[in-house]
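Here is one record:
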Amino acid sequence: MGFGMVGSEVARRAKGLGMHVIAHDPYAPADRARAIGVELVSFDEALASADFISLHMPLTPATKKILNDETFANMKKGVRIVNVARGGVIDEEALVRALDAGIVAQAALDVFTVEPPSKDSKLIQHENVTATPHLVHTFTNTLRMIVQEGVAIEVAEAVVGALKGELSATAVNAPIVPAEVLSELKPYVVLAEKLGRLAVQLVAGGSGVKSVKVTYGSARAPDVLDTRLLHAMITEGLIEPISSVFINLVNADFTAKQRGLQIAEERILLDGSPESPVEFIQVQIANVKSKFASAISDSGEIRVEGRVKDGVPHLTMVGSFEVDVSLVLINNSTVRLEVSTTLSYQLDILYWPKSHLI
């Protein structure tokens, strides 16, 4: 119950233990749930279906005592409940009654309506309750100050990183991607943005970009490969060179929709080991003319494709021609194109005026 940052991390770990995970959160996007193999369901369906209920929601007027006599009556007999969210989301007297009736087999509680709870609390003394002290209430003043200082430093570092354009694992209104996945995807994020930027600069002036297709080739199953971050970076690459809008993970989809830009995605499941998250990324722009005839594929779209080699993004196809070009960032506005191998009679696609370099 609750599918924010903490709830989604709990879901990942439960999936790793082989559990079938469902979630209820009226504000959670369905694509984020699908990306980690979780099914979003209604509140009533979650209550009726779950063997284990883990709570990760804020305490609001809507969630106060959301688990009560009525909702306990709709649960499976023998359900286990874990609450590490807020004490007030459970009616504690109703929980005692549900435990006594055998509706709730066990409860693990880290938070309580009144903290710390009284020593003679029926809930604390119940044989089927495991209670741990809410950590914040066990801190001494000195320890609390140390923790607050650590949190303040972490927040400041995250803000500085975001202002520098670095990836963030803690944004609340952007795709939530764990830190380890961010680290793995980092070179692919750079590649995605550069491919989008390159593709749109190959469009001849006056041609409106309205239809884009992005193809990901990967040996990883679709429910394992989360492409939302790559999608946002391709959108940034497509829009920023031809507008004054600054694109980020938060406004990428909204800005694309405002401009009438439709971006379709396709995933090709490849054979082999899923050691790398993505084998290639391909960007195609349909129904436009190009400054360079060589950039048009046999099917008539502007096409660019790239891969990551030894941690460095490479351009590997333009139009229907294979190339091998390292995209090396020099500064915020220029990328040096290091040509390794290419078709000599197609070099026109690799020579752009300085003003068109990404």
